[in-house]
Amino acid sequence: MTQPQPVEHTRVLVVDDEPQILRALRINLNARGFDVTTASTGAGALRAAAQTNPQVVILDLGLPDIDGFEVLEGLRGWTTVPVIVLSARTDSGDKVQALDAGADDYVTKPFGMEELLARLRAAVRRASAPTPGLEEPVVDAGSFVVDLRAKLVTRDGTDVHLTPTEWGVLEMLVRNEGKLVGQRELLHEVWGPSYDSQTHYLRVYLAGLRRKLEPDPTRPRHLITEAGMGYRFVR
Questions:
Q1: Average pLDDT of the segment spanning 200-206
Q2: Of 71, 187, 37, nearest to 87 (Cα)?
Q3: What is the DSSP letter of 67?
Q4: CA of 14: how far to CAs of 152, 167, 171, 189, 223, in Å?
Q5: pLDDT above 60 for 5
Q6: What is the rounded CA–CA span in Å between residue 5 and residue 124?
């Protein structure tokens, strides 16, 4: 059985305007070795992020001063820190908007603490995973270029911002160029063993990657779906 990655002293910023949620998360995360900073407003969240440089952020969308999407945009202006959105908004449009804006995961309220902690550990694991090997190829797909060593994607000479989760999905497909990567294999590698059945994650993230990278996202040329089986990267 795979053991959870150690999280001792991992810096977490929790942003929520509900005192009981802040308290519950602070207690539970502290008990598991996380270093927790809390904020109850969007402005406070941005200040705290700049001061503590967190390694993962848990962000509520419904804040009293500025919208959580603005906080996410502010964070993405200078950091690729994993962001887990924690929100009472259950509409799929909000989820897609949050993921497109740079969130790495989306958890709806009410939530199970153990599930949230599992997602938090997965986000930390993805962000801290080293790039294997010293000499990594640069893969030119024509429409976009993937530098596996620098963990950088460019399109038409311009850097494309990918969240750590989006990068994890793209990297696995690119490293297996031309091969079918099964749904369970992709979920297990990027999210962890407890996510093997969450195939809807893949649909959302592949759609987001196509919007960022494909010339025509509705007719993908490089990130191909093999219905019911998995996905394939082709140049």
A1: 91
A2: 71
A3: -
A4: 28, 24, 29, 26, 34
A5: no
A6: 8
